[in-house]
């Protein structure tokens, strides 16, 4: 499997991800479902499902959901939640988005939330998603993006790689759109969704170690004065660092 760093990282911090307030934000989850406009007969695949936040939200409406994830500890949390809440129409499996174990034209919808920036080969992932989607099926992608300014994009990604060794890239919006259209997708919806993060909770998600945390904090503070990241980095009244991720909800249709 290709994602050794990501597997190690998510296995180590699975419970921190499961409890993170931004990832579990019900308003964001409901907006993703609303923009996707699923029906009660749809069969949905949630790739890199993590602990299943989005899979469970879609399960209220669609006929069936399969959530795939390659980190066993993440899957265990999702499966336990399913069992505890007696949810019948969701199944979780271990699988890699770059080699999906499903037939062509199997799903009406494929979703992916806050995981695209970890994919080593994003175009291969998009190709696989395209393959398993039915004609006119929809892909919904929600992820953190970077500034269109290349220097700001690179600064943001440098911070991310120090904080989290499994990070690959926060893409510029134009890069994601280009990848989707190159694979025959038509963009139906493109929505901004600002997500506020407290520095301490954000760092806890990846637990990079004392020295890396100091380095990241120094870079975040240095970025404030001249807005080197487009992350609206600021200090609250207590002197704690907060910032705002720029995230996009993108709905695209397979042609």
Short description:
42% of the residues lie in helices and 25% in strands. It contains ten helices and eight strands. It has helices at 4-12, 14-19, 26-36, 53-59, 72-84, 122-132, 150-163, 173-182, 199-206, 210-226, and strands at residues 43-46, 64-69, 90-94, 107-113, 133-145, 185-198, 234-235, 241-254.
Named CATH topology: Rossmann fold
Element-level helix/strand string: HHHEHEHEEHEHHEHHEE
Distance between the termini: 30 Å
Strand content is 25-35%
Shape: globular
Q: Level of helix content?
A: 40-55%
> CATH first level: which class?
Alpha Beta
**What characterizes the major β-sheet?**
8 strands, mixed
Average pLDDT over all residues: 92
Q: Tell me which CATH architecture applies here.
A: 3-Layer(aba) Sandwich
Count every beta strand, where a strand is a DSSP E run of 2 or more residues: 8
Describe the fold and architecture:
- This protein is 42% helix and 25% strand.
- It contains 10 helices and 8 strands.
- Strands 1, 2, 3, 4, 5, 6, 7 and 8 form an 8-stranded mixed β-sheet that branches.
- The model has no long low-confidence stretch (mean pLDDT 92).
List the helices and strands and how they pair.
Elements: H1 4-12, H2 14-19, H3 26-36, E1 43-46, H4 53-59, E2 64-69, H5 72-84, E3 90-94, E4 107-113, H6 122-132, E5 133-145, H7 150-163, H8 173-182, E6 185-198, H9 199-206, H10 210-226, E7 234-235, E8 241-254
Parallel strand pairs: 1-2, 1-4, 2-3, 4-5
Antiparallel strand pairs: 5-8, 6-8, 7-8
Helix pairs in contact: 3-4, 7-10
